[in-house]
Amino acid sequence: IMENVHQAAEEDDLYSGYNDFNPAFYSEFENDVGFQQAVRTTYGRRPPVRNVCIVFVFVTREPLLDLPEEKLKLLEKKINTLIEESCMAQSTGNLQLALDKAKEAHREERALVKQREQSGSADHINLDLTYSVQLNLANQYEKNEMHPEALSSYKAIVKNKMFSNAGRLKVNMGNIYYKQKNYHKAIKFYRMALDQISNAHKDMRSKIKHSIAVVFIAMGQYSDAITSLEDIMSETPNITAGFNLILCYHAAGDREKMKKAFQKLISVPLGISDEDKYIPPNDDTSSKMVIEAIKNDKLSQMERDLKARAEKYITTAAKLICPAMDASFASEFDWCVDMVKNSQYVQLANDLEFHKAMTCLRQKDHNQAKEILKTFEKKDSKMKSAAATNLSFIYFQEKDFDQADKYADLAMSADHYNPAALTNKGNTVFVKQDYEKAAEFYKEALRNDSLCTESLHNLGLAYKRLNHLEEALDCFLKLHAILKNSDQVMYQLADIYELMGDRQQAIKWLMQVICVTPTDPHVLAKLGKLHNDEGDKSQALHYYSESFRLFPCKIDVIEWLGVHYIESQFFEKATQYFERATLIQPTQVKWQLMEASCYRKSGNYQKALETYKEIHRKFPENVDCLCFLVRLSTDMGLKEVQEYATKLKKAEKMKEIREQVDVQILQLDCLFLQPCDSNHSSGSSRGERLSAKMRSLTVSNEPYEADSQKELDASYMDPLGPQIERPKTGAKKRVDDDDDFGDEELGDDLLPE
After folding, report:
1. Composition bias, kind Basic and acidic residues: at what positions (predicted)?
2. How many helices (H) and strands (E) does the chain have?
3. Are the beta carbons of 81 and 34 closer than 8 angstroms?
4. Mean pLDDT in order along the chain per 10 residues (753 residues)
5. DSSP assignment of 667-699, as one string?
6. CA–CA separation, 516 vs 486, rounded Å?
7. Does the reported pTM lie above 0.70?
């Protein structure tokens, strides 16, 4: 071979002349299609074989051998990238994109396997990559709730003997069957997965056992669920299993075992390190920066979430052990509090005591609630403020406004930024009719918490009482933006627009109220009144009729309907309404007179006469009744005409005497109201006695009724005004932002019935 090798001279260049060409041929090569095609092909790019040096031949042949393997490696890298993109899309919630990427990765992986088989390198197939692709595809099918496809993909993985530990995926198949409510198959696959996991993996076995218990709970087989949960609590206890065990005992009605499970629950270690690690050991700036960085990182958030969940489970379990309606509620709750005080959750004891007070309050046991809340006066400022706020609320509901004011001040002194305390303070001032000062407290509460709806509502009422209608309207419009479906807010807006003289806007807002509460008779009556004021009698009739249908005892509605049908000459229809009014107010003579008048105008004179006689029997000195009796008796030719005429004259004379007496009483009252010296004091006393005596001579047209509603209404005045305008009591308990008790609010459901 070496004989054919010729060594080149040192001055000769092996590649000289390669770039030399005649420019005249340039255009021909450029326009020659065959030449250009040859240049683009591999054959055309292949350098010519020369016998100059054998080494040159080996250099050109080696890349041809490595090129297919490099392409396959690049394809594997592309598949891995598609899997990563699929997982990232799933993490951002784009499930459809995640599924598309998973399908594309699966297609590319199948193509890769086929190429390796064709190239004779099947031994180099990446099984880990195949497993990752198929598992990701199954997961994405499951996330997109394509359960049949997901089950098919999982089965393909599980049946492939080349994948080690693939049997664990039967847990995922069990989860799908659970979502499909195929509980028997779910338990079957959970148990198959459990059999394939060794005892060394305790945590995984515990989680599968818990899934089995959850399925049993869904099936209502609490005894089987208890068996699984007890097994978990004896081997690897955790708060979720402990809480579910208490729930199962509660469903089974075993109170004693609930208490034992509660003791196990509060003894479960959370594995959370002490919070002192977030306190810098010195004034080193770098240490402080590190602590600030880890204070709110993902791990810290997970620890806080775990602690909050544990506290929620414990408080809920305590409520289950101590049902509110049980006779032993107090003693059982005290037992739970003692257990918690001796555990790692000692800070929850105050919250449980607080819950006990709130439970007593809901049971209308105000004395017990006040007794418990007063024990918080020596606690930390936050608990003290929350307790004082609720005490203020209780006394306010009991109309003991002095005590309500006292505890509102106490709550504010403990925490001046407590919006509920400021709201309660404003309420105590509101009932004293100092609306300007009440508005200041409400505004301060809103400065501390712009979403305090109670303060915003009551501020609108205060402005309304001050006749600052524009400011009141602004408050309720803001409140409507927060509470979109609050019928009270929309009613207040309608009322303000009515006060401003804009009836159309008032009707618009009342129509929105009807959309929320279509069966409110008072709102329907209000709509009837507004339409009547607008002159739309047909709409007024519709809404008044609907109001009467829902609540046939509202006098103003009955009166309007009766008068409307009289004006429309439908006397028989009007009679029904006045009969109803007579049943509601039997001591009011006008309803019976209207009923008799309807009979008379409809031509039923006999019935009218009988009604007038019944009225005369109850109200013997009523002049109007006697007038109609005389007229009817005359028209019908009855012999009682003279008798009724005589009674009419006497009644008119008595009426004249009463009117004269009333005039004299008025004159005497005016006389005794004039300034006088001490010498005339005895005369004044005699004048007052005379005035009282003359008043006693006044004869009423109504029969005497000691407990009449009229007297009660006159002597009673609700200091909060109508129910719709009552200020809300913002008695909130703010104990801890992460605690369930922190968001609890006492609303109108605690108002005494």
Report:
1. 725-736
2. 36, 2
3. no
4. 41 44 47 54 46 37 55 89 93 93 92 85 84 93 93 90 85 93 93 88 91 94 93 91 93 89 88 67 72 78 87 87 65 82 81 80 80 78 84 89 91 89 94 94 93 94 95 95 92 95 95 93 95 94 95 94 93 92 92 92 90 90 89 87 88 85 76 50 43 38 33 30 42 37 33 28
5. HHHHHHTS---GGGHHHHHHHHHHHHHHHHTPP
6. 8
7. no
